[in-house]
Amino acid sequence: MSQAFLITFAAMRKSIAAILILMLGLNAVAAEYPYAKLYKNTPVALEQAQLPVIPDFSVRITDFANGEDCTLAFPKAIKELAKQGGGHLIVPAGTWIAGPIVLKSGIDLHLEEGATIVFTNDKSAYFKKDADGKPIVNGRALPCISADKCTDISITGKGTLNGNGQWWRYAKKGKLCEAEWQELLDMGGTLNEKGDLWFPYNLNSGYPNITDSPEKEEAIRNHLIIIKRSSRVLIQGVTVCNSPKFHINPSQCTDVVLDGVTVKCPWNAQNGDGIDIGNSQRVLVTGCTVDCGDDGICMKGGSGQKGLEAGPCRDILICNNTVLHAHGGFVIGSDYSGGMEKIVVRNCVFDGSDIGLRFKSMPGRGGKCQDIWISDITMRNIPDAAISFRCDYADVSYKTLASGEGKPAEFLPDFSNIHISKVNCESCATGIFASGLAGADCVHEIFISKSRFECSKKNLDVDESTTRLYLKKLKF
């Protein structure tokens, strides 16, 4: 056998070995990503949301706490983890009182089964203090949990995060039964002159007011989880409930995964949004259950120029979720000036949400919304429309524009290239509602097909002069 042949054969063996190693490496990467199947056969190619990498180091909150009140313990534990380069903060079974928790890069907040973090109703804990220890109130209170400009963060486990929102939210008497209204009165608080609005002011909480009026006290209420300008974020398995305002709000983030999360609050909780995705890219929401007081799973994109500068919601996959009570099951708007593109929603159940698929906006809050694909949706007990497009949401200024007075409005809504198919709505008031704006092409190239609606009032309530819908193979 010649030397040349031996050299060539050896080179071939090295090449084959390298290929095998590469193939094994690719298979390993594929096996490591648990959500690959969810991204198969999407109608538009989506970039996959990547998961955080958390260092293999852990501490327990009990190492820093002296009793159930962990208001100071959580910051100490997070500081210690940050010194180690990150790791897991373990919260064991039990009830733990906390002030605002600020996560840092590389940290996982892990709630074991049976663990409940209840956020304090001492509102002063959510503000910086002056030299005399008094809260400096110059805006909304800090979120219960927050992170800003972080990488690789997560909130995991089978425990519960309770925002204690009843101490923050104002309430409308008309939305409450007599027993619920009496519970609020027993907390103290302040009524308006008509006696039909209750404000969380002058409460029997043992803590003083931190503003000088009921309206100001209500206006400072915070959100439960806000993650801003961060990447590789995971929220998995936990129950997030009773927020003072919104429950989960990633904003201007990349690579966000919400998996198996339960979000719930009273149906009449004012502004009690479930999941709000704002100006974020590569987001996966799967296996979640939402039962809340406002929009269920909502895409937001800011208003006007600020929203545009914050960027679009893009490469979003929402699948295998259940929304119970909510103002809308899946929602885009009302503010989305940053834009919406490449969003896939499929295999979801909306049972009891006011509207199933809700697209809402108004001049000044709108933008480009395109390349949206929605399919395989089951709806039940929808008291309003199964599918709704509205471009005059809470708007008064556009009436002046439509009459020819004033300057042309900027940031008009533009809903287009939206594909909705295989919707099975067992009961709703109206099948499809659509209304645009006179003189503006705001709702166009909307394709709805292969769907069934059982309607108690109207099959279609569509303004054909302001919208262009293409309906095919629908049953009513």
Question: Would you kindly provide a brief summary of this structure?
Answer:
With 476 residues, the protein is mainly beta. The chain is built from six helices and 33 strands.
Can you offer a commentary on this structure?
The longest helix has 30 residues, at 3-32. This protein has helices spanning 3-32, 73-83, 178-186, 214-219, 304-310, 397-402, and strands spanning 58-60, 87-91, 94-98, 101-102, 107-111, 115-119, 145-148, 151-157, 160-162, 171-172, 188-191, 197-203, 225-228, 231-236, 239-241, 248-251, 254-259, 262-264, 275-278, 281-286, 289-291, 297-300, 313-319, 322-323, 328-332, 340-351, 355-360, 368-380, 382-390, 414-415, 418-435, 443-462, 467-475. With 476 residues, the chain is mainly beta. The protein contains six helices and 33 strands. The strands form two sheets. It has a 30-stranded parallel sheet that branches. A three-stranded antiparallel sheet has the order 10-12-11. Residues 4-10, 16-31 and 395-407 have low confidence and may be disordered. It folds into two domains: 58-159 and 223-475, Pectate Lyase C-like (3 Solenoid), CATH 2.160.20.10; 170-220, no CATH class.
